Amino acid sequence: MLEGAVPARQTSKPPARRQTAAARPYHHGDLRRVLIDAALQLAAEGAEVSVREAARRAAVSPGAPFRHFPNRDALMAAVAEEAQRRFRVVIEAVLAEAPPADPLARFRAFGLAYLRWAMRNPAHFEIISTGRYFVHGSSAELTRDNAELVALTERMLADAAEQGLLRSTDLKRILIAGRALIYGFARMNLDGHFPRWGVREGEIEWMAEGVIDLFIAGISKR
């Protein structure tokens, strides 16, 4: 009965072939993801990053990426946003294990997690921490994420001050000093400074932990 309802001339199915061709996904599956990964690889190698070069690395036609990224800034903003998301996952996991009633322990955990992430993901750190690749203010997501992370550290210090744990009540100065320490240490590692200071490759994370502990001891009444 179903066979009788379908005219024989439709068995060649030309409309189905056209629909399949139109709906066929791009052969990479997720071109946007592939381009972000290609741009990150270029940055990690110290190469010049461009949309066309990312397309070449991804083995796609030069015009294909522009459906997702109209220019280099848009591409690098997406890379930075992805880096920031990965960083947030690490921070949230570490803070989930830190004692909720001890703000200085949480502040320490945050700083050490930041440093370890920066040292293990140098290309991501370079992209989100400098203006070399794109204008940071052009990404609303990145701006919002940075503000949330700053607010998180401010709350930790405010809680520590409320509990009477800090030597100084100048929380802004402590926060900036902590930022300078963490960023400076990560930057020293990225720029290869530690060998000249007698710190071997396998000792850098151990040194990072010691430096953070020294900072915490300096701001704490304990």
Number of helices: 10
Can you give the mean pLDDT? 84
Question: Total strand count, please?
Answer: 0
Major sheet size, sense and barrel closure: none
Helix content: 55-70%
Strand content: under 5%
Instruction: Give the full name of the CATH homologous superfamily of the largest domain.
Output: Tetracycline Repressor, domain 2
Distance between the termini: 87 Å
CATH class of the largest domain: Mainly Alpha
User: Which architecture name of the largest domain does CATH use?
Assistant: Orthogonal Bundle
The overall number of domains is 2
The whole-angstrom Rg is: 25 Å
CATH fold topology of the largest domain: Tetracycline Repressor, domain 2
Uncertain segments are 1-27
Task: Identify the overall geometry.
Answer: elongated
What does this structure look like?
By secondary structure, this protein is mostly helical. It has two domains: 43 residues, Arc Repressor Mutant, subunit A (Orthogonal Bundle); 148 residues, Tetracycline Repressor, domain 2, CATH 1.10.357. It is built from ten helices and no strands. Helix 9 packs antiparallel against helix 10. It is elongated. This is TetR/AcrR family transcriptional regulator. It comes from Bradyrhizobium commune. Keywords: DNA-binding, Transcription, Transcription regulation. One of its GO terms (molecular function) is DNA-binding transcription factor activity.
